[in-house]
Structure formats: C-alpha cells, structure tokens
Amino acid sequence: MEKKAFKSTPLQVEISDIDLSPGPFCMSFNFDLEPLKDSIDRFGVLNPPYLLKNSDGNFTVVAGYRRLLAVRELGLPDIVCQILPDDIPPFEALLLNLNDNLAYRHLNSVEKGMILKRLTRFLKREEIVTSFMPILGIPSNRQTLELLLDLEELEERIRISVARERLSLRVAGLMGTLGRDDRLRINDLFTSLRWSFNRQWEACQWIIEIASREGRSIKEVMDEREIIAVLNNEKINNPQKVKSIVRILKARRFPSLLEAEESFKKGLSNLSLPSGVKVIPPAFFEGIDYKLEIVFKKGGELKEKLAELCHLSGLERITEFWRGREHR
Amino acid sequence: MKRFRIRRILIEKGAENDSLAKRILKKLPNIPREDVEPYELAPREDIEGMDKESLRIIHFNGEFLKPCPGTKRYICCGYKILNVGINCPMDCSYCFLQSYVNQPSLRIFSNLKDNLNVLGDIIDSSPDRIFRIGSGEFTDSLSLDYLTGWTDFLLPFFSHRDNCILELKTKTSFTKSLIGSKYRKGIVVAWSLNSHHIIANEEHKTADLKQRILAAQECQKAGFLLGFHFDPLINYPGWEDGYQETVQLLERYIAPDSIIWISLGTFRYMPDLKWAIKRRFPGINIFNSEFVMGLDGKFRYFKPIRVEMYAKLSERLNKWYDDLGLYLCMESDDVWRQSLGWSPKNSANLCTYLDNRVRRLVADLKVPKI
After folding, report:
1. Less CB within 10 Å around the terminal CB: N or C of chain A?
2. Is A252 on the interface with B (CB under 8 A)?
3. pTM (predicted TM-score)
4. Which ipTM score applies to this complex?
5. What structural domains and CATH numbers belong to chain A?
6. Residue B346 forms contact with A (CB below 8 Å)
7. Which residue of A has its CA nearest to B299?
8. What is the pLDDT of residues B85-109, one digit of tens each?
C-alpha cells in the first residue's frame, strides 16, 4: 500500500454529535464491549478515534467505532477525536481504518467480509485477492473472496455463528443457495451440537442432496423422525448425537454404499477373525487392494495368528463380502 | 439446428496473418472485432460464464497433437487429441471444461493448418503404429466448422495416410461440408449420445437425439465410418428406459456393420467441477446419485451402479449387433469383467483392440461414388 500522511486535527467532540450507526468504514461485528469499557473506565481512551465531518455538521466514524460505543455506554459526554480533512478520499479513509484495526485486534470472518465488501467499491476483485486477502490472513483466491463477500447477505444469527467459529465459512456459503428458514434450521442444528467443520460440510451437502433426490423439502429431511429422536435423546451426549445423525443422513444419501459397508462388516464378523486382526477394504470398494493389520507382541503370537488365518474357512471369499445381495 | 451466434471476434496479436484467421474474418464481416494481447487476463465473470459468444482467434504455440489426459489408475484407450481449439458454443451442464479452462471465449487456434506438416511428420515417422486422433475433446469437432473450415483441410490430410484415423466428435447435425467432401478414408464421424431426458435437460443448444441420429445416418449413407459415445451416462430415475430408447433409435436408422466403436462412460467429475456446475446451473440434479471418490481423484458412481448401467446398456447394444466395438472409457479391470464379461486387462491391450478395429474397418471401407 502506498504511504500516505493525513493531517488531522484534534477536537473535543460531544458524543451526541457523532453518528454511531455502523457507517461506510465500519468493520466491527459481534464484539464484546465489556473489556474495552473496563479499559477506558480505568485509563481513558488511549488512541483517539478518527472522524470526518458531515455536511449536516455531525461526524462520521472512520476509525474507533468500538471505542466510541464504549464511551457512550460509559455515559461520558464527550471525547477527544482526530478530525480528518474533508477532502480525504473515501478509499484512503477506509485504508486508515483497516490499518488501525489490523494493528490492534483479531478480525473475525464476518469482519473480514465487511472489509472486502467495502474494498469492492474501489478496487477490482483481482486486486483485492492479490493485495488485500494476504494482509487479512485469508487464502488468496477468488472462491474465498466470494464466500466472504456473500456473508453480509446472510441472517445475523448465521453471521454470528461464523464470527464465533461455530459455523464453517464454506457451509455458510452453501447455505446461501437455500431459503432463509432452511439455512437457519441448519445453522441451529450445527451450532447447538457443536459439529466439526468437516462434518458440517458433509452433512449440509447430504441434507440438500437428499432433499433433491427424494423430492422433499429441507425441513422434511431434517424433521425426519429418526433425527428428531436422536436430538431428543437425553441419554447420549452431543458428539454421540452428531455421529448418529451423520449415520442417518449417510444411509439416506448413500444407501448402496452403506449397505455394502454393512455387508462387509457382517461378513467379517461371521469369519471370526483372530483377536487383533483387522481387514481394511479399499476406500468405497473402488480399488481392489485390501489391507490386513495384525497386532502382536511376540513372533510366536504372530505365527499363531497367521496359522489361524490360514485355516479360516471363508477367507477366500472376503473380497466378495461387500457385494452382499444385489445393490439398488 | 441453427448456427451459433458470434457477437464479437477477439484477435490475438500474432494471429492476424494466419490463414484461418483471415477465413473467419471473411466469413463474419459484420461482427465487431477487437485486437487483443495474448495472455491477457480475463475478468473472472467471463471465465465463469464461459463467454461462449466471443470467438478468440489465437496463434497457438503449444502442441497440436496431445495424448488424451487419461489416468494410470484406470484402463485408457490411448487416444490422441488434435488440439484445434478450446471451448464449445453448446452448453452441456456437465461439461468438464467449466472447471478445466481458465480462460473464457471460444478459442480457435488459427495456425493449425500451417502446422499440419509437424503432425504429418509424427504420424509418418511411425508407419506401423495406428494413430487414433480426435478433435472433439476440448471442443465440438463440427460446431464451428462453418467458420473455421476445419474439415476442408483435415479430411484430405488424414485421408491420405494409412496409419491414422481422424474422429470428428459432435453433438450437432452440421454434416453438410463433410458430405460434400470427396474424402472418406480414415475419417470417423462420431456422435455423443444420451437419452432424450438428458439431452433435453442437460445438453443445452445441442441437436436433439433424432437430429443426431439422422445426421449419422446421412453420413453413413455417404460412406463414412461412424462412432458413438454414450458418455456421460447419467444415473437418474428412468435411465434404463431412456437409454434403451436411444438404442432403439440407433437400430431404426443406423446399419451396425460400419460402426467402428461405441464407448460407454458414466458421469465423473473433479471435485471443483461440481461447484462450477452448481454456480452456472442452480437446481441441477445430476449429482443426486451415489458418487464416491475414484482412484484418480474424480468422483464416480459407486461401482455397482456403474456396473449395472454398463451391463444393461451393453447387453441391449449387443442384442442389436455383436460386433460394435464396445469399450469402456476410464474403467477398471473388474468393472470391465462384471459389466461386459471380458476385459482388455490394461491400457495397452485396449489400444490394440481399438487399433485392430481401425485396421479391419478402414480396410473394409467401401467408398460410394459421389
């Protein structure tokens, strides 16, 4: 970024003269004001906010939005601010606030989205990707940029989930293709049980695709009796609930695959493999290479297990187990 | 089927003096023309939208003959691609180019004709080898032929050689220039086929099934060898009847003995393609079936689904004629065995199988007098 110097003037400004709605330079979302209030209460405002004078005589916040909110909540009548020259280009004012924020705090994903959105008023997307996303610590690609820009279109409840890292950004992006009620329903499911991001991604796709496969609504898929029963089951904890719901969704999304996995598992259990012996099938039964894992402590034990395996009837059919009965 | 509309022509620096560029400009005198720099970065919106109404004429510095990007993990046919251009004016929802290309517009390589000697040297230096070459991998072989005149110079070039065939793969019914030419030997005209349902819903701006088959019939009557490609086979409710109907139409209009091959391939995609497709075609449901990650990183239908589709379709095709040169595109040995009842075991044997069909059918070719 090009080096700029702005000649600002200090001024004692009454809080009531400052427009404290999130303005064109604001990049704050879902923050806890209490620590800042405590700090200001004890030490005062260490860094003055930067303001621009409006045509109506009031002030627009360029930098220091949270400090001003904290001051207002503390009931202070006025504060010393730096007033920027009227002719400062809006882009430069935006960069000033960006640098102020980058220096002092961690930005959540929604705030990064707000910054990027504001930058699109001045710059081409390619430039934002190459020059600004690295500064914000975001992977510099167009796909991530679009995901972050689209965040502002989502409901506040969803944005809060993203800001608090309860909901994956990628999943929020996918939710953008759904209706309001459906996305809120999915958001609530994921955040209430604290799903991992990978599980969220998997399950969100499955829910959408099950609805499409079965010609049903997202609500119908999610309100399915089995899922509700899991959610209401007080005997299992959250991770267990997530696991059960994933299993229910997988069975509906991949019935043939799940049936094959079950058949394989059943075939193995009928074999009565020696203890500590595991057979790992190829992923999704796509390849043809199986793996055998034997846990042993001594060579003698290994020999015994191998001998037992050699005499195990039915082992030669092991690669057919997954076929079970006819699929589909 | 109507010709495709071109709204602007972009000529890259260095292409303006190529014969093909001059031809296109002569054919489209009233279309706005812009001179552009090579390697100019296109806006992302254009890339995602594919910008299929702009024709970019490029002096191509890469290789015109390339091996088909197959995979070592599945059995591949050893096809060679004649790189005439990239992108296609039709708009199939499932098209892999949507995530494969990083530049928009219909891109035509204007120095192809001027570089045929290089191609000739490669083919002529291995006289015992059969070159199966196609121009329909990264574009449609015939959709822009009315502008480019590809067939005017490619047909004589390939017809004069004994160890190669050129496959012109298309979803159009644009066969006029082919039929009007005097060259037949070594030319295979091939149609990508699907069910009525998939053509109507997913293969936008293409010729419908009957138009394609009637165009094939016309080419067959004119003495061309035919190829057909059931690729991508898509698993949707009713697929079995849908593909049976397509075979019935083939039976009705096409004589099977001059079909050089019919390939079968189920829908497969790289992970990125799914999102590119969903962006361009929201609400699309070709991803509804059960896909799993294949050995080559592409998603494919779970194996039993693929086997069932191949087995049912091949059984029906074999009932029609038992020497159609059926083969599977990028499949494993076990899928071959389970669905077709035999397997070439590896890519080299599949090559030999297809090369032998070229040797046999091209030698048998009886060219009618025109």
Report:
1. N
2. no
3. 0.87
4. 0.89
5. 9-156 (3.90.1530.10), 178-253 (no CATH), 257-323 (no CATH)
6. no
7. A286
8. 999 999 999 999 998 887 888 999 9
